[in-house]
Structures are given as structure tokens and as C-alpha cells.
């Protein structure tokens, strides 16, 4: 663990935390794996270990809102094991530390989709943002600075910028990053973390994105999911998910292009190009 002064020297965002907590932390550790958030695990006298998620310039770039994240967690906490909100201000968000082991992907498909179905049963509340696909991809596109990149991807962006008419008009709480990297096995069962992209949206999109991260085909995943959401129209959902699969990939490619721009990392550029090659 870094002492507090050394941690602040490494990340200026940490200097805002004492104002939010009304105390000077004892030390901090950077959390590995975060892309958008670059969060820190912070040791405090009053709350033990906590997570600090600053309201940084990267939040604007990736269209992340800490107020929305706080509202989502307050809502989801009553439904599924997750962090608790300790403090929230314009500077950022402080969450409780959740102790657990990363979930192993093997043989975990059913409990993962059961947990996702449980989240989708949440009644949307005020204070949580409404997802708008076109607004999201337009935002990502507008954040891209390279004229060469935009020229290369213009055709794909313009072709998939708008959605055709879909069958499912249901709107539920969606996580939008429901991969094993955001699932923990705790002594109480399965826990879910990292809600920064969550919004009220079509469950078919959230399910498509989850199955893509799990490398599971639509029919197999939907059959398992339906065990926990028996009311769904299987054929209509399957048709919608085939449409969402293409549009979600385009949205992901724009996210990767932004990540490459922000972190100056060609690995993200390669991911975006791999998607482009499949489409073109």
C-alpha cells in the first residue's frame, strides 16, 4: 500500500477524496483492470477499505455519469449483492469494498444468466438514465479526434447509426458490462460490481452484450435466460438480438477507438479493426 501522499502524487484525482470523506485516508492502491474508471482502493480509518471513483475527464469522453452510477447502485443493492454507496459528490463516488474471488467462467453460464435476469426484473426508477443507442454512438463518434480514423470508419458508423424497428419495447435496468471481470464469488454467493455504464434500456441488448463477452451463441444463451424470464417471446427476442448483435459490435468498435485514443494503446485499435473487418 502506498502512503497517502505518495498515492496523491501518482493520481491527482485522489486529492479530492478527503473533502468527500471528511478525513485523510491512510493509504491507497491502484486497482488493476479498470479501463474507464482507473479506480483506487483506499484505506480509511472510518470505513476500512473503500473504492474511489473520481469524476475525471475520462467520464466525459466515455459518457459516464457518477450520479447515475450512484443511483443505479442504490437501486440494485436491494436486489443483488453489490457495493454500497458511502459518499457521493461532484468530485466522485466512494463505494464500500466488496470482498470476493473473481468468478471463473467455466461452468458458470447458468448462474450468470440467472443473475442478469434478476437485474432485469428491477422496476426502473427516476434518477437512472435512459439509454439511447443513437445518442451513445454519436457521442463516441464526436469524441474521436483523428480525421484518418473517422474517414476509415465513416461508412460503418453511418450504416449502423440508427436502429430498425424492434419487437421488444420493454425497458429495464441493464448493466452493460456483465462479464466475468465484473462478477465476484463471495461467501454470500454471486456479487456484481462496476455499474458505471448501467442504464434503463432493452434487456435484449444487455443480454446480447453479455453473451458476446461469454462467447455464447444467442439461441443457447436465450434458452437458459428464459428459464428465469419465462414470459418472454422467444422468437421475437431472438430476432431483436440478431439486430442488436450487429449494432452492439459497432458501438463496441467506437468505444475501442476512444480507448485507443485516451490510453494511446494500439491493442484497442486492433480490437476495433477486427470488428471493422467482420463488417466490411
UniProtKB/TrEMBL annotation:
This is Thiamine kinase. The keyword Nucleus does not apply. It holds the Pfam family APH. GO terms for molecular function: kinase activity. InterPro entries: Aminoglycoside_PTrfase, CcrZ_PhaseVar_Mediator, Kinase-like_dom_sf. Keywords: Kinase, Transferase. The keyword Ribosomal protein does not apply. Residues 30-220 form the Aminoglycoside phosphotransferase domain. SUPFAM superfamilies: Protein kinase-like (PK-like) (SSF56112).
Amino acid at each position: 500500500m502506498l502512503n497517502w501522499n505518495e498515492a496523491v502524487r501518482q493520481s491527482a484525482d485522489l486529492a479530492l477524496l478527503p473533502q468527500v470523506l471528511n478525513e485523510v485516508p491512510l493509504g491507497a492502491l491502484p486497482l488493476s483492470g479498470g479501463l474507464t474508471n482507473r479506480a483506487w482502493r483506499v484505506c480509511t480509518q472510518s470505513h476500512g477499505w473503500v473504492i474511489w471513483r473520481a469524476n475525471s475527464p475520462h467520464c466525459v469522453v466515455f459518457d459516464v455519469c457518477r450520479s447515475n452510477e450512484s443511483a443505479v447502485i442504490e437501486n440494485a443493492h436491494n436486489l443483488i449483492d453489490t457495493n454500497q454507496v458511502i459518499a457521493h459528490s461532484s468530485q466522485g463516488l466512494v463505494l464500500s469494498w466488496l470482498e470476493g474471488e473473481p468468478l471463473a467462467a467455466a461452468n458458470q453460464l447458468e448462474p450468470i444468466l440467472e443473475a442478469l435476469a434478476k437485474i432485469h426484473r428491477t422496476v426502473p426508477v427516476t434518477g437512472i438514465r435512459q439509454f439511447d443507442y443513437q445518442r451513445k454512438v454519436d457521442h463516441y463518434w464526436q469524441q474521436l479526434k483523428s480525421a484518418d480514423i473517422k474517414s476509415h470508419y465513416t461508412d460503418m458508423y453511418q450504416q449502423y447509426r440508427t436502429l430498425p424497428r424492434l419487437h421488444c419495447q420493454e425497458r429495464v435496468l441493464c448493466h452493460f458490462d456483465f462479464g466475468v471481470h465484473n462478477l465476484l464469488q463471495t461467501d454470500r454467493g454471486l456479487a456484481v460490481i462496476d455499474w458505471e455504464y448501467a442504464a434503463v434500456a432493452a434487456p435484449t441488448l444487455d443480454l446480447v452484450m453479455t453473451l458476446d463477452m461469454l462467447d455464447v451463441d444467442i439461441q443457447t444463451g436465450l434458452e437458459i435466460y428464459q428459464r428465469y424470464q419465462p414470459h418472454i417471446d422467444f422468437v421475437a427476442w431472438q430476432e431483436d438480438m440478431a439486430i442488436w448483435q450487429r449494432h452492439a459490435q459497432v458501438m463496441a468498435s467506437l468505444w475501442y477507438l476512444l480507448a485507443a485514443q485516451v490510453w494511446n494503446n494500439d491493442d484497442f485499435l486492433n480490437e476495433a479493426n477486427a470488428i471493422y473487418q467482420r463488417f466490411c
